[in-house]
């Protein structure tokens, strides 16, 4: 089950579970759409994987399986992989 991390690893913007602008890689590294598109060119800086829209969990399921509260913030690690 996805952890639904609460923030962008690059700019620390809040990304609540219902955020339509959250992007993740297959390892669930989480970024806002602005950082994913402009700073990272659609690639995860941690693994080089593709960043895609994070699915949104229905409210009823979110009540039973809440989103993570653990924030991951790496302002120095947000250059595109391979840069």
- Amount of helix: 10-25%
Cα distance spanning the termini: 31 Å
Beta strand count: 3
- Mean pLDDT rating: 93
Specify the number of helices: 2
- Describe the strand arrangement of the main beta sheet, using strand numbers: 2-1-3
Biggest sheet overview:
3 strands, antiparallel
Taking pLDDT < 50 over at least 5 consecutive residues as the criterion, the unreliable ranges are none
CATH architecture tag of the domain at 1-58: 2-Layer Sandwich
Question: Shape, please?
Answer: elongated
Order of helices and strands: EEHEH
The chain-level structural class is alpha+beta
CATH hierarchy class name of the domain at 1-58: Alpha Beta
Query: What is CATH's topology name of the domain at 1-58?
Result: Herpes Virus-1
- Give me the Rg, rounded: 12 Å
Strand fraction = 5-15%
InterPro entries: DUF1272 (IPR010696)
Pfam family, one: DUF1272
Protein name: Urease-associated protein
Task: Note the topology.
Blueprint: E1 22-24, E2 30-32, H1 33-39, E3 52-53, H2 59-64
Antiparallel strand pairs: 1-2, 1-3
Verbal overview:
Pfam families: DUF1272. This is Urease-associated protein. This protein has 83 residues and is α+β, with helices and mostly antiparallel strands. The protein has a domain at 1-58: Herpes Virus-1. Helix content is 16%, strand content 10%. The protein is built from 2 helices and 3 strands. The chain has helices at residues 33-39, 59-64, and strands at residues 22-24, 30-32, 52-53. The chain has a 3-stranded antiparallel beta sheet. The radius of gyration is 12 Å and the shape is elongated. The protein starts with 21 loop residues before the first strand and ends in a 19-residue tail after the last helix. The model has no long low-confidence stretch (mean pLDDT 93).
């Amino acid at each position: 089950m996805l952890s639904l991390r609460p923030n962008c690893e690059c700019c620390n913007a809040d990304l609540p579970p219902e955020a339509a602008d959250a992007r993740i890689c297959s390892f669930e590294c989480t970024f806002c759409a602005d950082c994913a598109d402009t700073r990272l060119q659609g690639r995860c800086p941690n693994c080089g994987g593709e960043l895609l829209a994070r699915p949104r969990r229905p409210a009823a399921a979110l009540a039973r399986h809440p989103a993570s509260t653990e924030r991951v913030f790496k302002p120095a690690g947000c250059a595109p992989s391979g840069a």
